[in-house]
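Page 47, continued from p. 46.
Same chain as before, 323 aa.
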Amino acid sequence: MFGFIISRILQAIPVLLIVGFIAFALFAYVGDPVNILLGQDHTEAQRLELIRQLGLDQPFFVQYWHFLLNALHGNFGISYRLAQPVSRLIAERSPATLELALTASVLALAIGVPMGVYTGIHRTTPLSRLFMVVSLVGVSLPTFLLGILLILLFSVWLGWLPSFGRGPVVHVGAWWTTGLTSWAGIRSLILPSITLGLFQMTLIMRLVRAEMLEVLRTDYIKFARARGLTSRTINFGHALKNTLVPVITVIGLQFGGIVAFSLVTETVFQWPGMGLLLVQSVAVADIPVMSAYLILIALVFVVINLVVDLLYYAVDPRLRLRR
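Result:
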């Protein structure tokens, strides 16, 4: 197991180096940080001094090496727009994004798996057909449109839930903040988490249903029925367990996608997370923030892939025997 983890980490190093090179290329070829930082009114001496401080007078690969060293220490420079360290901005915004992503993933998993199992076992019931219709709507409806419709219904017409913001938050530890300690914070989380998790929920439901239908046709399920096992034991003890490997893959990758691409939902609901920070940074070409976000998302996907591979071993004993 330890060797397997080491091999996966070694495979991830080239990926992170390539992503780091792309992020550095944003520094080198997109925009002019000197003009952005100094503005219109500056002397040539001030310009040359800032170029020396930023290390822009050094060769390309020397700058790239310093960029990697600083990234390893969590130093991604100063935001052009906010004039603050990028690492501090990400540390302030990441709790909101992770809280939203975790809530959306839990909702998608808690609702999608039971719906998929039910539609796989009871294929012709009216409720199963209703679930399939809901899944088509969830897959087809764009995220921004779904968010606007939810705001219109629950915020404008009914007035039950807030339409933007995170609500009051409390600090837990050195940098983590959460809004789950108050009812106002929970109410602010409902609409964006549903918007972000609906597509994942329908995808998980359809995947579980397809896997259940395939597993229920296999010979060992027929043999289990011939032995006189109960339907509950067959459906949940044998069939569902053997559908978990592809489901774990989708859940892991979709969680990374939720973290990486939550910017649409965060923009619609003005959720103060990393996605909204990225959208605001792209509008003004804030290259340090964009580069840090790119590297962070690559690291998230690498870690998620490692966790998914480890969960394979916990769920499927065939993989352990093969190793």
